[in-house]
Amino acid sequence: MTEISAGIVKELRDRTGAGMMDCKRALQETDGDMEAAVAWLRKKGAAAAEKRVGKEASEGIISSYIHHSGKIGVMVELNCETDFVARTDDFQELARDLAMQIAASDPLAVSKDDVPAELVAKEREIYLDQAKEEGKPANIAEKIVEGRLRKFFEERTLLDQKYIKDPEKSVSDRIAETQAKLGEKIVVGRFARFKIGE
């Protein structure tokens, strides 16, 4: 078995925010391979989050962000299971980050399930017309429509958007990381974005 130094455990903890013992175990399980240990911790966090799916997230906070120009403002409700977690720095930082994300990227809804069906139908119709104008056969046109709808959701729904502070991950990845660290279900309840003149 590979000898795991305190330094490498600290490095993994700094990178992931996971507990010291979890970091040590991840490094032991992956023979000291940092990238594999990060992946191991993410899988463990995802598995822990999966177990909490049935839990009710009825606590939380409302966070706000006003852009420095004073022309855009956001309020977001972020829910968790306990008041204790709602008061942690990690949870409050996540809420602030989400408010900034909403200010910067102007999502339509929290998730694709929240986008009105008539809007999805309208977008689908537009994409289908575009594909037909491009002369695509029906079976190819349908695949093009699905691809463009997927892109629409990635751009316009909060959970599917690329996280502005790290575009390598999505907003839902960012939430999952905090969920794994805090050990509770975290849910974006709702948000409101205000812009002068809109």
Mean pLDDT: 86
Oligomeric grouping of the chains: single chain
SSE class = alpha+beta
The span between the termini is 61 Å
**What name is given to the CATH topology of the largest domain?**
Tetrahydropterin Synthase, Chain A
User: What is the assigned CATH homologous superfamily of the largest domain?
Assistant: Elongation factor Ts, dimerisation domain
Global shape:
globular
Number of domains: 3
Report the CATH architecture of the largest domain. 2-Layer Sandwich
Strand order of the largest sheet: 1-2-5
Estimate the helix proportion, in percent. Answer: 40-55%
Annotation keywords:
globular; single chain; Tetrahydropterin Synthase, Chain A; GTP Cyclohydrolase I, Chain A, domain 1; 198 residues; alpha+beta; 17% strand; two-stranded antiparallel ribbon; Helicase, Ruva Protein, domain 3; Transl_elong_EFTs/EF1B_dimer
Fold and architecture overview:
The protein is of the alpha+beta class and 198 residues long. It has three domains: 46 residues, Orthogonal Bundle (Helicase, Ruva Protein, domain 3), CATH 1.10.8; 91 residues, Tetrahydropterin Synthase, Chain A (2-Layer Sandwich); 40 residues, GTP Cyclohydrolase I, Chain A, domain 1 (Orthogonal Bundle). It is built from eight helices and five strands; from the N terminus they run αααββααααββαβ. A three-stranded antiparallel beta sheet has the order 1-2-5. A two-stranded antiparallel ribbon has the order 3-4. Helix 6 packs across helix 7. The longest helix is centred in the last third of the chain and has 19 residues. The radius of gyration is 20 Å and the shape is globular. The mean pLDDT is 86.
